[in-house]
Amino acid sequence: MLRPLLEADVIARRITELAVEIRRTYGDQPIVVCGVLKGGVPFMADLIRHLSGAVEIEFLGVSSYAGTETTGAVRITHDLKRDIAGQDVLLVEDIVDTGLTLDWLRRTLGARGPRSLRIATLLDKPERRRVEVVVDFVGFTIPDRFVVGFGLDLNERYRNLPYIAEVVEGP
Ligand code: IMP
Hints:
Elements: E1 2-6, H1 8-26, E2 31-37, H2 41-48, E3 55-66, E4 69-78, E5 88-96, H3 100-110, E6 116-124, E7 137-141, E8 147-148, E9 164-167
Parallel strand pairs: 2-3, 2-5, 5-6, 6-7
Antiparallel strand pairs: 1-9, 3-4, 8-9
Helix pairs in contact: 1-2
Bound molecules: inosinic acid.
């Protein structure tokens, strides 16, 4: 059963605020916005449309999850199509849970020599953190619940929901 947690209009308002905050942080600098596939796509799509100034988009595919449990194994399934050395890079994630994926991504992309590397996540579940990671822009901090919608899936389902819902036991 799905129990709505964050409605579409609440998410939209928060993303607009984040875009303003992000642009303020970067000043006039061009930003290479890297969306993490697949979950980060709806968030990224909304975010870039509210980001003023020079923005490029890139996608990075990683596989880290099977069902509802983290495997800890991260592997690149789709790499960036441009060199990020010397660039101001903003990595856009759907959710930070244990932090393992992000920690790995930070190290891996950091090794490519970007001028700066910041992270924006729509959701943050700090209770489950296993490694400390710095997240620069957070949409919503949520409790330790498994959520779907707005890019987030349960075995590839529900990514298309326009809101975020908690998966609860029930009929
Ligand atoms: P981490 O490495 O544990 O931080 O996991 C990050 C990834 O796990 C996210 O990018 C999601 O794909 C997935 N994930 C973590 N929590 C949830 C959830 O509540 N719903 C759906 N996917 C999740």
